[in-house]
Amino acid sequence: MPSKRMTLRFRFFAQYREYLGLSESCLEVPAELTTVDELLAWICDHHSAWSAVVNAPDKLIALNRQLVKTNAPIAENDEIALLPPVTGG
Amino acid sequence: MYRRIVLQEQDFDLTDELVRLVEAVGSSAAIATFTGSVRPDEGVEALFLEHYSGMTERALEEIAERAFKRWPLQGLVLIHRIGRLVVGEQIVGVITAAAHRQPAFSANAFIMDFLKTEVPLWKQAIGPEKTVWIQTTQADLRAAKSWSE
């Protein structure tokens, strides 16, 4: 029996957007993924086109437009953004 | 207390902003102003500032909130521009008003340091030959860390 899935929305900005040629995308992932950490590991294994961005050591992660740490919990319909280091000011 | 946080494409007049702040708070004994503009670096004609709609505005509000919590400010103006800005154009303006110079200076520098490390804004340098995403410097990261709250 196929495992339950949930849909998440991903956003990419600046050099990540250009590298992937993608500003946003929805992805169905296993519903048993509970944290950002688990999600990023799953993406590396199953969606390797995004792995360079997912593995970028200095990336920031936003969940529903708020910066979070990698142990933040995720849920159906969340918006996850992978942000390059910011350079405002 | 006066608080004005704006993210916009159009230019701003910091003198007008200062007048509005002073009208709103009455007389502030200490007012610090900072303006950041596009530097005429070699090979750079303009900057493009990208943002994350909905999050950038929220992050600006949060930085202002942290400054108000940390220092006894009477007024704060924070204006950041987005889009294409040519060399010499203003990017950011910060005005901080308080009863004494120390909180006015400190809050102003604090806001600028966190704009460079926590607010989703990205600068792309546009030149005649190429475009390059500007990188965060170690000095910027150290400056923000030095405020460790």
Give a description of the structure.
The complex is a heterodimer of chains A (89) and B (149). Chain A is of the alpha+beta class and 89 residues long. Chain A has a domain at 23-83: Beta-grasp domain (Ubiquitin-like (UB roll)), CATH 3.10.20.30. Chain A is 25% helix and 30% strand. Chain A has helices at residues 14-20, 36-46, 51-54; strands at residues 5-12, 24-30, 60-63, 66-68, 79-83. Chain A has a five-stranded mixed sheet. The longest helix of chain A is centred in the middle third of the chain and has 11 residues, at 36-46. The mean pLDDT of chain A is 95. Chain B has a single domain (2-148), classed as Aldehyde Oxidoreductase, domain 3 (Alpha-Beta Complex). Chain B is 34% helix and 35% strand. In chain B, strand 7 (121-126) and strand 8 (131-133) form a beta hairpin. In chain B, helix 2 packs antiparallel against helix 3 (101-115). The mean pLDDT of chain B is 95. Chain A binds chain B through residues 11, 13-15, 18, 58, 60, 62, 65-67, 81, 83-89, and chain B through 36, 49-50, 52, 54-55, 58-59, 80, 91-92, 112, 115-124, 133-136.
- The radius of gyration computed from the alpha-carbon positions of chain A, rounded to a whole number of angstroms, is 13 Å
* Poorly predicted ranges of chain A: none
What count of helical segments of chain B does DSSP give?
4
Q: Beta fraction of the residues of chain A?
A: 25-35%
CATH fold-level label of chain B: Aldehyde Oxidoreductase, domain 3
**What is the CATH class name of chain B?**
Alpha Beta
Morphology of chain A: globular
In percent terms, what proportion of residues of chain B is strand?
A: 25-35%
Oligomer: heterodimer
Separate helix tally of chain A: 3
Task: Give the helix proportion of chain B (percent range).
Answer: 25-40%
- CATH top level of the domain at 23-83 in chain A? Alpha Beta
What is the CATH superfamily classification of the domain at 23-83 in chain A? Beta-grasp domain
Arrangement of strands in the largest sheet of chain A: 2-1-5-3-4
Q: Taking all residues together, what is the mean pLDDT of chain A?
A: 95
CATH topology of the domain at 23-83 in chain A: Ubiquitin-like (UB roll)
Please count the beta strands of chain B (DSSP E, at least 2 residues each).
8
Topology of chain B as a string of helices (H) and strands (E): EHEEHEEEHEEH
